[in-house]
What does this fold into?
Amino acid sequence: MSHAFALPRPHVQGLPAVRTFRAFNRDPLAALDHAKATWGDRARFAVAGEHTVLLSDPEDIAEVLVTRAADFRKDVGTRRLQLIVGPGLLTLEGDTWRQRRKLAAPSLKRAHIASYADVMVRHTEEAALDLLAHPEGRDLHAVLMGVTLRIVVECLLGTNLPTDVRVVEHAMADSVAGFAGWQQSWRRFLPGWVPTAPRRRMRRGAEALDAVIRAVIAQRRQDATGNDLLSRLMVAQDEAGLGLDDEALRGEVATMFLAGHETTALALLFALHLLSRHPAERARAEAEIQAAAGDGPLGLDHVRQLPFTAAVITEAMRLYPPAWAVGREALTDLEDLRCGPVRKGTQLIVSPWLVHRDARWHAEPLRFVPQRWIDQPVRERPRFTYLPFGGGPRVCIGNHFAEMEAVLVLATLLRRVRLDVPQAHVLQLRPSITLRPTGAVPVRVTANHRPD
It folds into this structure.
């Protein structure tokens, strides 16, 4: 934009902005709630020369994510995730991203992911048996992370992981914790060469993950025939006959590890935690599962027969969206946005946490009411009043996989075990890359007695 234009004054700048930044680092969710309550749907901040706009209005969100998507790229925080996952669908931009998405999309369509249903149920059945055999001292979050990681390993890589799956778990944990400790503190303003402890931890995890992925790719280059996603990506070609080299494959596998198991594990954690606090809803889900599957094995055909179970997942992701914030950065000066003009480099942040808990869009927003999604499904609601997977061209490519997996895992667990989080336990959250619990989530495990 060649001419000058008047920018709205930031709501918070100078010393108050520094205090707000510190408050955000201590408790991001409380800071988001405060910002929206104080400054409304378009809160503007300026900290250390970095301008940020927090958007909560669905029409503003639609403009940024859809109608004006070409005017933005991923926010600076997301782009820094390349230090963990390298260049992949999550972090790439422009023509490279479009070519990569075109190659990957066919393998994540409903028709392809349907073949993974049995894998999802089998790993969950094994986890249920392990819970019953070792019921004491279990952390529900860790259990679910293990289940979804084993599912994504088999569906993504086949069964040829050249190391114990726990190596990947530890690598992911170090990467995510280190990244959060770096980005959500004053350390993110330091030059990249400063060897802070969080960055060292992040690098250690990323290097361990990289070693596993490269070993798998080298192994699979010898035999790329299989039903897993990596096999499909290895043989995929664009119109010019070009496929993905090892570096590109490495980026996509790492991205799937990061985005493909933790978000689903968290959705399941929140769903089971909520059900343990709402026995009537749990009994209704159990009865629905029994009516659909009887004593036989659960499978793909049952997913559509479990609308209330699916609504439990939807409602859990409304109250506790694992992807709690979505960011974009203005590529140029933009004078005519609905939210007001912004300069090039401005960070625009959309928070599903705020939108999902807004009484304008969701009646009694703090109540757990799965029935609301049966009375009024997502497709019948105003656009971007529910956005657990983002939206627009950059909507999560694995959303169908995640939705099917969440329903099948939840239904399988509800059939086999009763998981009760003690009433004394308070679910405390710490948003980092995803919305995670701050510590272990204890759970009491008993065999489930199916309803008559």
Summary: The longest helix spans residues 246-277. The chain has one domain: 14-447. The mean pLDDT is 88. The beta strands are 42-47, 50-55, 72-74, 138-139, 326-330, 347-350, 417-420, 429-431, 435-437, 442-447.
